[in-house]
Amino acid sequence: MKHIKTEDAIGHVLCHDITRIIPGVEKGPVFKKGHIVKEEDIPVLLSVGKENLYVWEKQPGMLHEDEAAVILKDICMGSSDMMSYSEPCEGKITISAARDGLLKIKRDSLNAVNALGEMMIATVHGDFPVKKGDKIAGTRIIPLVIEESKMSMAKRTAGDEPILSILPFRHIKAAIVTTGSEVASGRIEDAFGPVLRKKLAEYDTEVIGQKILSDDRAGITDAILDFARGNADMVLVSGGMSVDPDDRTPGAIKDTGAEVVTYGAPVLPGAMLMLAYLKHKEKEIPVVGLPGCVMYAGRTVFDLVLPRLLAGDRISAADIAGYGEGGLCLNCKTCRFPECGFGK
After folding, report:
1. Confidence band (pLDDT; 50, 70, 90) for 9?
2. Residue 253: partners with Cβ closer than 8 Å, 6 or more residues away
3. Which domains are assigned to the chain?
4. Which residue from 95, 57, 303, 275 is spatially nearest to 199, judged by alpha carbons?
């Protein structure tokens, strides 16, 4: 710190808050620590009795908190036009979504940067949809000044790609294959179709068709392949996902030749999920076997994987396994999803 007369402080950075007290009206900081003194600030400082100030004297190799905050912002979002940011203030920058999409986070890089100390990045959960204007991250430099070398280390630690990215949702042509002899025969009404159409309608999707079939393994396989040849971007297969001998859906999905990522997920409701990818010409088409809970439960594993599929985010077996922590829905009386811990 450097002791300086207030009149000589223009361009210098305050090392402490400056408080103004107006009895019965106001008590609070008129200038905060880190403020860069401007010419028009001098009369205000003198009016609150500050004839001398402690200021930070810029030294080679040291960065002011706001200068370092910009570096931290760049580490997070790079030059992406999918995000926007606030101006730095007291070493803080807020990052928001500039478009609707799926938020992706390089978690290892995020943790590594936060472990360096003297800086922090706090985010909302990744792999969830965000809307334009949503706050997605906040960054802060902890001290008033920080070594330039430490910010260089942060950039190296984060790697070449930004920690945050937003994948835009695509226009998806979805097809539905509903299985079950009780539905195909007309003994009960199809309840899956309306539920799936409602969930798909939350996004930019088009349902190009639905087939209702009995528990015929070959017939289910043919229906999936027909939709794939008919330009479907995703095929949802509902019903017949348990180990009951009449349930043929898992085998029918395997018979398409699709790459099976998982049959089972550490999520309740939704443990009997099946996810596979079917290659057709130049496309890789997700084929999703949906358990019965999707028909009646408010939120299930389908709500966790659907946004990722619509954004073209390929889901791995490790991703599915990662749903275990947070994968228990508490069936709250009033559902607050996604403002809750389900899937997070």
Report:
1. confident
2. 220, 221, 224, 237, 260, 274, 276, 287, 289
3. 2-56 (3.90.105.10), 62-166 (3.90.1150), 172-322 (3.40.980.10)
4. 303
d(CA 318, CA 322): 6
Where do we find the tokens 């990215």? 165
Cα radius of gyration (the chain): 28
- Copy the structure tokens of residue 8: 């000589």
Does residue 246 register a pLDDT over 60?
A: no
- As a whole number of angstroms, the distance between CA 107 and CA 244 comes to 39
The pLDDT assigned to 245 comes to 59
Alpha helices (runs of H) in the chain, residue ranges in sequence order: 42-47, 65-77, 107-114, 148-158, 181-184, 192-200, 217-229, 249-255, 293-296, 301-310, 317-322
Q: What digits encode the pLDDT tens for the residues 142-158? A: 988 899 999 999 999 99
Amino acid at 128: F
Greatest Cα-to-Cα distance within the chain, rounded to the nearest angstrom: 90
* pLDDT band, very low/low/confident/very high, at 186 (cuts 50, 70, 90): confident
Question: 177: closest CA among 287, 266, 257?
Answer: 287
Query: Cα(75)–Cα(77) distance, rounded to whole angstroms?
Result: 6
- Say if residue 123's pLDDT is above 90: yes
Q: For residues 99 and 178, give the distance between their C-alpha atoms in angstroms, rounded to a whole number.
A: 34
Quick one: pLDDT at residue 26?
Answer: 67
